[in-house]
Amino acid sequence: MLSERRLQVLRAIVQDYVGTEEPVGSKALTERHNLGVSPATVRNDMAALEDEGFIAQPHTSAGRIPTDKGYRLFVDKLAGVKPMSPPERRAIQNFLEGAVDLDDVVARTVRLLAQLTRQVAVVQYPSLTRSTVRHVELLSLAPARLMLVLITDTGRVEQRMVDCPAPFGESSLADLRARLNSRVAGRRFADVPSLVEDLPEAFEAEDRGTVSTVLSTLLETLVEENEERLMIGGTANLTRFGHDFPLVIRPVLEALEEQVVLLKLLGEAKDPGVTVRIGHENAHEGLNSTSVVSVGYGSGGEAVAKLGVVGPTRMDYPGTMGAVRAVARYVGQILAES
Amino acid sequence: MLSERRLQVLRAIVQDYVGTEEPVGSKALTERHNLGVSPATVRNDMAALEDEGFIAQPHTSAGRIPTDKGYRLFVDKLAGVKPMSPPERRAIQNFLEGAVDLDDVVARTVRLLAQLTRQVAVVQYPSLTRSTVRHVELLSLAPARLMLVLITDTGRVEQRMVDCPAPFGESSLADLRARLNSRVAGRRFADVPSLVEDLPEAFEAEDRGTVSTVLSTLLETLVEENEERLMIGGTANLTRFGHDFPLVIRPVLEALEEQVVLLKLLGEAKDPGVTVRIGHENAHEGLNSTSVVSVGYGSGGEAVAKLGVVGPTRMDYPGTMGAVRAVARYVGQILAES
DNA sequence: GTCTGGCACTCGCGTACGAAGAGTGCCAGG
DNA sequence: CCTGGCACTCTTCGTACGCGAGTGCCAGAC
């Protein structure tokens, strides 16, 4: 077990290193934080912290830098979440309220997060399966060609083309549209499959093929993987990463382009509050030198999607967590209003 | 005026420099290209080319590298467009044909371009104003709340919320929907404003406010700037930029995040064929060390949007131009089919 | 007039060496 | 258990130097 002072030393190391980006030595520590002990004592503590794996030295005679394990302890025990100041809160709210539609909300959120945290921002669109159905629309584009449009209570709109096996009359179309909506409107998307499975039976034999096709298209859009979308921004902030540039930044950019990777990353965070994944805690190898701070957001109690930032493990955790949490809260409000 | 051989020397310099990324000297030139003359002669030619501003030396006593002006001459006079090989063409076609909707087409196009050219790809969604209307849908979400959905022949779907000044009955809604579609379906979006301006007059006084609101929302979505969207990808390719990394890459990433900048960039290219903007020819300062290769694409004769790549001025112009042109052609085909 | 070989010159790059500085580990004493 | 002192390690930085690539120019050949 680590003594109280050793924890203070760790905290001081993390704070200094995050600020200066340079390994921090015992002398600098005693000067900048009044720990009430001499450098020699701090050195002993540092040796102990190093034995436990919380800090490391890049070279034999340089200062110490925190390890992933050190950051983990810092985040869990030594630091809180730094709340946003009132002016910042107001700025967030004002900026988000200007949005005209969901795309705009998401785009603005990305910009905002990137700017506040000076890191790469990732915002997931509200999940279909965790939203409720506002409306399902069917349009006839050609005799045997329909367009299916899904609209969620969060303002998300998805459309799919449907090629019908047989021509589908205007009256059958109206019938299907009405039946579909009466069954699913206001219900959760997750429940849709069971709500519509017997629908073809209500139709004439000649139309059943088309109805089934429409329904299977509808269900396809709800399959995991397909239904998730996200937006990223602030990649220019990657340039503030460090000195050993290309080697680190390359895999990060590649990972960011793989939506699957990012979705898995966000999906792993089950915590209801802000989740922090540090360095090697991220399964994806390219992100081993980054930390991911994420949180769910939603219009009501339940989270409909996640948002977060990706940055160097050497980041201002309290500040970042505060920004992410605040933005999520306001996005939730905006969605609830729309 | 430059002699034929001097042009050959310039061509050789560009080709070698693009290949090796290193300044090329007179000796290496004569060894790798059989120009039929000695290094000394080439040196004289190089001195002349330098006087004219087509090449430059980074330091006294290093080889020469092409200037923007040199690349310009190369692109205009010395090199053609390298066509894609049949297998490549087939791969492009296969990859694009798997798309399920417009978002997917655009996303696949971005990936494809980025992979083929190993550069940053930019694809603009089909412009609304240059497309034709397939359908306009109006949905009632709440007594005084409508959703307006626009669908183009290229598969693009835009939606907007409309807050009505007064409740709008279901029959009025159906009426408006029918009148709207009969006027604009199949027409070009650019013509929509003049086609609908007298529409409110056909309605009862109590509904006119709502009809006007709907129409003005419709027109707002068509305003330049608002109606343009684009997708970028392959930013990881920026890491192959050069050695003086962060300084160059930073402004490029920043420019890429500014959609306005990119749209202007693509918009400036008026040429019906492939357009190349080299280095300082790009108005935006951050892109002064990049070249932009772009081309319009569309389902029919006219271009509905642009696509292209952004890369270092030191790029394989013939190959890049070939890839961009080929991808644009196939995207056009796909859009025409859908 | 144009091309060529020769030659002296310039510079950037890599290596080597040494001094400076920062930081450490350890130890003996309070 | 803390502290001051001290020897040690390593990185960093500046300087010097030799090497090699490439150039510009010139006199001579075709």
Automatic annotation (TrEMBL), chains A, B:
Keyword check for Ribosomal protein: no
InterPro entries reported for this sequence: GAF-like_dom_sf, HrcA, HrcA_C, WH-like_DNA-bd_sf, WH_DNA-bd_sf, WHTH_transcript_rep_HrcA_IDD
Domain Heat-inducible transcription repressor HrcA C-terminal: 103-321
MF terms in GO: DNA binding
GO BP of this protein: negative regulation of DNA-templated transcription
One protein family per Pfam: HrcA
SUPFAM superfamilies: GAF domain-like (SSF55781), Winged helix' DNA-binding domain (SSF46785)
Recorded superkingdom: Bacteria
Keywords for the protein's UniProt record, in alphabetical order: Repressor, Stress response, Transcription, Transcription regulation
Family stated for the protein in its record: Belongs to the HrcA family.
Main function: Negative regulator of class I heat shock genes (grpE-dnaK-dnaJ and groELS operons). Prevents heat-shock induction of these operons.
Record protein name field: Heat-inducible transcription repressor HrcA
